[in-house]
Amino acid sequence: MLRSRRGPVIFVAFLAAVGCKGQPAPSAKAANSDTRLEPLIQEDMPSAVQFDLKPVSVPPSSPGAELFDCAFTSRGQTAKFRLEIKQGAASADQFPMAPAEGRFIAVPGSINKVLLEELKKALDAKHAPINSRRVSELAFTAVVLGQKQSRSLEGGYSDKPPGDWVLVKLFLPKGGDEGEIFLNFNPVLGKAEFSIKDSDYGDYVLNELAKVL
To answer: Which residue in 6, 36, 119, 138 has its CB near the most CB atoms, within 10 A?
Structure first.
């Protein structure tokens, strides 16, 4: 039985998301802003898996939610899925956070073999997905750990200077905490990434994501 990581640990998770040495380093600036840095996933830092995302023009199922088309392309294969996420009101604390919820939506024609191999390494999972039958969607609860974040030269995140990254921690299944994973996304750059929360969660999270990615 895995330990619960709620309460004060969320603050620790925020610090890990902001300063973790496993976060990828920036490689180039976007042309129209000196705070929008293109992340680089280095081969010797397999703690995150980056993918592309772009807003979807059709309205999401829940008012106030954001909906994105997502794609991971590598070695001639493309995994496709959609991400829907809705944020609640932020707290008034010194380090404001906000509750959130959402879902991953399966897309026909997705080829996820390479993506799952990369996620297995990044999440420190011990085994490949087992009996991961496909489902139409995978719901989650979440907490938004930071908004308007930029990458530091060391690869962490900061709100000084402000940027376009949103830092989120997901809980699986929805309403539970059997598995946790960080999801950071930048709608301006059109980039997002999965990164490890805890290796104890690796196998569970990989099995769940394999059902829908």
So the answer is: 119
Cβ 100 vs Cβ 168: under 8 Å: yes
Rounded to whole angstroms, how far apart are CA atoms 52 and 204?
A: 24
What is the average pLDDT score of the chain?
Answer: 82
Q: How far apart are CA 173 and CA 101, in angstroms?
A: 11
**Model-wide pTM > 0.85:** no
Please write the tens of the pLDDT for every residue from 121-156.
999 999 999 878 999 999 999 999 999 999 877 778
